[in-house]
Structures are given as C-alpha cells and as structure tokens.
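Consider the following input, taken from an annotated entry for Glycosyltransferase involved in cell wall bisynthesis (Cyclobacterium lianum).
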Amino acid sequence: MGQPEISVVVTIFNEEGNIPPLLEAIYTSLAPISYELILVDDGSTDRSVEKMKILANEKTRILVFNKNYGQTTALAAGIDHSLGQYIVTMDGDLQNDPGDIPMMLDLAKKGDWDVVAGRRANRQDDFVLRKLPSKIANWLIRTTTRVYLSDYGCSLRIYKANIAQNMGLYGELHRFIPVLARQEGARMTEVDVRHHPRIHGTSKYGLSRTFKVIADLILMLFFQKYFQRPIHIFGTLGLLSLALGVLVNFYLLVEKLMGEDIGGRPILLVGSILVLGGIQLITTGIVAEIIVRTYFESQDKKTYTLKAIHQIGKKED
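Applying the prediction step yields:
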C-alpha cells in the first residue's frame, strides 16, 4: 500500500461508549479517500482499547500508552506515527464530526493551506463552564500572540505533514498548536465545522484548566519572541537593571562625598540589588544562549525550515 493521502489521529481517554459510533462515522466519511486511522489510547481505564481492537479495520493502527500522559503527548505520538501527506487531528468524544474532514481536505488542497482549523459553529457545550472560559482564552491568545484564529479549543484541524511533524509538541500545549504552526511559517485558514453534544462519557475539561492555559501562554509568548535569542530579553532587562543600579550608587557616592551619611538609607540596598540583579540577568541570558546553541547543534537541528527548493536548469544552446 502506498502513502495514504491523510492520516487521521484520534486521541482516546475513557471513551468506550463513543468508540462504536466514532469508528463507524470515520470509516463512512473517509471511504472515498486514501487514509489511515491512528487511535491513540491515553491510558484508558475502561474498555476503550478492547472495543477498538474488535471494531478497527485494516487501515487502523492503535497506539496504547502505559499510563495517562495527556492530550498533547497523545497527539505527538499519533503525529510521529503518521504516514499521510496531510494529518488530521480530532478528539474521540464524537463532538467533532468526521464528516467535515473531506471538506477541510478539499479546502487545504485548493488553497494550498498548511493548516485548516475548525471553528465550532453552534457549539453544544455549557455556557458558564465551557463556552465563557473558552471565549476569554481565545481572545487572550489571539491578542497576545497575534495568531488570529477564532477557536483555539477546536481539536479538528488538518495540517500538511511537514508542518505537523515539526511543531515540537510536549507538556500541555495542544491549545497552542496554531501558534506553534505559525512559528514554522504555516499559512492558516479556518472554516466552520459541526459540533455535537456529548452523548457518552464525561468531559475532561473545566475551569481548573484556566490557570494552566495562562501559564502555557506565558511560555508560548517567550518561545514566539525569544526562543532562538534569549539574550535579547535577559540581556535587555539585565542592562536596564544594571544601569539603574549604577545611577543609584553614583548618586549615593556623590552624597557620601558631600558628607552625608548613607549607611542606613534603604536606597543603598535598592542600588545594590539592582546591580546584582542586572549581573545575574545578563549571566542567565548568556547561559540560555549556550543552552539553545547546544539544543540545535547536539541534535543537528536547523534554525530554519525550507518550504521548497527550486533547481533552475541550464538552457541548452
């Protein structure tokens, strides 16, 4: 069998009730397309794996984790094992509709888009616990990262394989996948997709994730601006702190030369802290630069991504 056109990665965690209708919907929707299905079980404690083994067809592979690692890690594993030209990601709760995949694939091919993101139309979730926190998070991410998508929480997306396989997923960064894709230079668009109420199982999301999202956003902003040049932020802050500290201490020196007693003045402590803090920030920036250099050179990673290489042949006489 040759390379499939798409690889569909579905993350599963305790979804035994959704497995039969999910697989039926996927197999029916993708019948006209060359595809492979990768089901990633994220340490389910119910009968999800057993049902997948019974119902899976010959185009399906099942990856089973030995414990629960989280959605981001499950997505990373699925993407790592994908062989398709395009990679589709979706949740296994059946709120995403596999019937939207052919439409999204057609849009990606016609527009030569690197990423087509789903935008949940008529979202079937509780307003207070799900929709409102999601709207706030979407606005915050859009405003700070300047990656203008409407729905960061929709996991139904399609990517060109080279984009998906170079995003470097880890931790709990699945909500920020579009930001990671943009860092790879991806051209993105979004399209309305269907959203269904959850019929089986319970939601794995809630208000408790809000603070984690904010913490991850801070990390993403740092990655977006300073990942390859950490000295720019640490060095700038360090030089500013050092300069203020020198000015404060110079002022105190003048005061001392004029006969003033400066030994008990709090500003002396402030000046010392600013100088030491500046030195420490600059040193941290230098160490971070060495770590980044080691990260790239030790793994033979490139600091760039090529979209294409064109070889212009010589014209014959």
